[in-house]
Amino acid sequence: MLPDKSGNYNIMQKAMRFPENDLEVLKIIQRFAKAKKVKLYLVGGVLRDLLLERQKENLDFDFCLKGSAVSFGKKLARSIKAAFVVLDKEHGACRLVKRIREQLYTFDFTDFRGKDLKSDLLKRDFTINAIAIELEKIFSDKDLIGALIDPCSGSKDLELKLIKLAYSKAFSDDPLRILRAFSFSAQLEFKIDNKALKSAKAEKELLTQVSFERIRDELFKIFSCDNSYVHLASMDKLGILKVLFPQMQKMRGIGKGAYHHLDVWQHTLESVRQLEILIQELKGDLEIQNYLNKVISGTRKRCALLKLGMFLHDIGKPAAMRKEDGKIKFHGHERIGLKMAEEIAKGFKLSNDEIKALRIMVLWHLRPGYLGDFIEPSARAKFRYFRDTAEEALGVLLLSLADQRATLGPLTTRKARLRHEKVCFALMQEYFRKLKEEKKPRLLNGNQLMKKFKLLPSPLIGKLLGAIEEAFGIGSIASKEEAFVLARKLLTKS
To answer: What CA–CA distances, in Å, run from 449 to 301, 340, 442, 468, 484?
Structure first.
């Protein structure tokens, strides 16, 4: 649904109906509930998104009922052959997952959070999520607007594009809702009302009680949006980022110098902003967008992970800071930073693939800048760049461009910036060209080297193979015989 000229939604003037495919699926659940004499209510996100005519990749339906949600869900799962998991046995919550016609559906069932439906809705997080409808009524041919149960006036706040607390203790009852306010604001492009912002600021320390996995999921929702920087800056202003990332506090107030016009912390936030601007500039490049939209783990995409990498790229600077000849320097901050980033990633329970990607981003984020010191980097330098950064080669180039654009100190010249950008964009083209090339087989393997030169297994074999691979990659050797000649020379020198 498009907003009107004032920027708000005329929700109550629009017809509200479920898509036919969803109705077919929900009809199966309603028939089962009727047979079991259970009254089900659809609640929250599905109604909010339907009112906004918002399309989602994943179809999630939240139901609530008077009691025995886990027992009901278990029986339904058996009946429709769906996967089943208990989410919260104490408070009566379970989840069913079922693939229907190539579409994955998620169904959550929870007991009322109170004596009745109204009590339940009044305990929801935000007014826009405190809307319900009796499941049986969605199959009517009539407009569903009149059947909505909306004690918190959530539909009005949807029209106003406003994130508003459903009740005063919403954050203290579940502190994760503080982050959910910002993730909803980012996803829906809604404003968070002042009362909610004041409450978030007052109760931010409660976030230390929330599991890292739940925090991760909300942060990735924010990083998945085009306007992450705006919300990170707002969270920073309220002191929320200080609670989530205490190890980054030391970045404030240091590092402003000849090349940087901002301190390390402000530079970090500005780098995220510049990365988002860059991604928008490249919106029309299908190859780059496909790269950024690749799912790395679960539903988490590379674009969001790249923004996290940008957020963490200078995290090692405070520990690396040294004063030499009257100048502040940060030699080795990338190696310190990769260990810190890895600890954060493991705390968030990121996958091994995500952790590996973050390590590469943080460790090699300076490399394109070094290559940009040359009008044309050497074949050897380019080979080593693509070898070391592997699948993250393009991502590191994007990080480097954003990092450079966020650096506007007096010694940062326009000429150097343009050269850096030219080199980075040329390397991007080379990255995609290499992807299309047929991979060449190795000239030699370790067994052949050991047999030829009567060597025992050792790290030396790996070094020889690496040198041969590099020489082959840059075209200085082209045959097995030349590879043996190179190996002999290297062995003579060692």
So the answer is: 41, 39, 12, 11, 8
Nearest partner of 126 among 152, 148, 145, judged by Cα: 152
pLDDT confidence of residue 2:
42
Residue where a domain stops, chosen among 226, 244, 262: 244
Count of alpha carbons within 13 angstroms of residue 455, beta-carbon side = 18
Q: Grade residue 13 by pLDDT with cuts at 50, 70 and 90.
A: low
User: What are the tens digits of pLDDT across the range 95-116?
Assistant: 999 988 878 899 999 999 889 9
Report residue 365: phi and psi, to 5°: -65, -20
| Calpha distance 333→341 (Å, rounded) | 12
Q: Which two tokens stand for residue 477?
A: 């050797």
Contact 157, 196 (CB under 8 A): no
The domain of 475 spans 446-493
pLDDT digits (tens, 9 = 90+) for 333-355: 999 999 999 999 999 999 999 99
b vs e for 358-389, b when ≥16 Cβ sit within 10 Å of the residue's Cβ? bbbbbbbbbbbbebbeeeebeeeebbbbeeeb
* Other CB atoms within 10 Å distance of the CB of residue 467: 16
Nearest Cα neighbor of 178 from 219, 129, 226, 233 is 219
| CB 166 within 8 Å of CB 159 | no
Task: Specify if 441 maps to a domain.
Answer: no
Q: What is the pTM of this model?
A: 0.88
Separation of alpha carbons 330 and 311, rounded Å: 17
Separation CA 408–CA 57 (nearest Å): 39
* Calpha distance 202→205 (Å, rounded): 8
Are 182 and 144 contacting, i.e. CB atoms less than 8 angstroms apart? Answer: no
Q: Is 125:180 a contact under the CB 8 Å cutoff?
A: yes
Residue 370 within a domain: yes
Distance of alpha carbon 219 from alpha carbon 212, whole angstroms: 10
278 and 418 share one domain: yes
End-to-end CA distance of the chain: 70
* Beta pairing partners, 93: 88, 110
Question: Residue 160 domain-assigned?
Answer: yes
